[in-house]
Specification:
The chain has two domains: 54 residues, Arc Repressor Mutant, subunit A, CATH 1.10.10; 132 residues, Orthogonal Bundle (Tetracycline Repressor, domain 2), CATH 1.10.357.10. Helices cover 75% and strands 0% of the residues. The chain has 189 residues and is an all-alpha fold.
Length: 189
């Protein structure tokens, strides 16, 4: 490292790499985007990749973990003022808003899972952790809604979410609105 560089600039390089990976991986896919392109976009050397992440696979996992943390924070903030019994339905309002946003390119977790077959890949582990978190929220919210079979309802809400996001990527946000409508019916049982 050249003289005069500080720990702050080291962190800045890491942040630039993660930000570039986030933009490129989300819009184009993790397999379509080579590491040289990420590094060029981040204005970083290949040695920086190895110093901060070890390899592209670890960078992909960090990208997903960042996306998951941001999504969790947004979701929690979005439903925070909603009574617990109504949070599952409110979540689907969040999904509709997400699918209507200009930068919506589908679910990054779904994309990575479709591109990487190895369930032990660090990115697949990150995607699984996000699904576990969301399923736990659906269980909690379904219990609070006092539905007859909260476990089955939570599973059905997962399927609705998956379908809403995947179909909205192709058909537009109407599919997310359809999922919200179905969630309302499920939660009223």
């Amino acid at each position: 490292m050249p003289r005069g560089k500080t720990a702050v600039s080291k962190a800045n390089v890491r942040d630039r790499i993660v930000a570039a990976a986030d933009r490129l991986f989300y819009s184009e896919g993790v397999r379509a985007v080579g590491i040289d392109r990420v590094l060029a976009e981040a204005d970083a050397a290949k040695a920086s990749l190895y110093a901060h992440f070890g390899c592209k696979d670890e960078l992909i996992a960090v990208y997903l973990e960042r996306r998951a943390a941001e999504a969790r924070a947004r979701i929690e903030a979005f439903v925070a003022d909603t009574p617990p019994a109504q949070r599952a339905l409110r979540f689907f309002d969040w999904v509709v808003g997400w699918t209507e946003s200009r930068d919506f390119c589908g679910c990054p977790m779904q994309h990575v899972v479709s591109e990487i077959g190895d369930p032990k890949h660090p990115a697949r582990v990150a995607a699984a952790a996000q699904r576990e978190w969301l399923h736990a929220r659906f269980l909690e919210w379904s219990r609070a809604a006092k539905v007859k079979d909260y476990e089955a309802t939570a599973g059905a809400l997962m399927v609705l979410f998956d379908g809403a996001v995947a179909a909205s990527e192709q058909d537009g946000p109407q599919r997310a609105r359809d999922a919200r409508w179905t969630a309302r019916l499920l939660l009223s049982r």
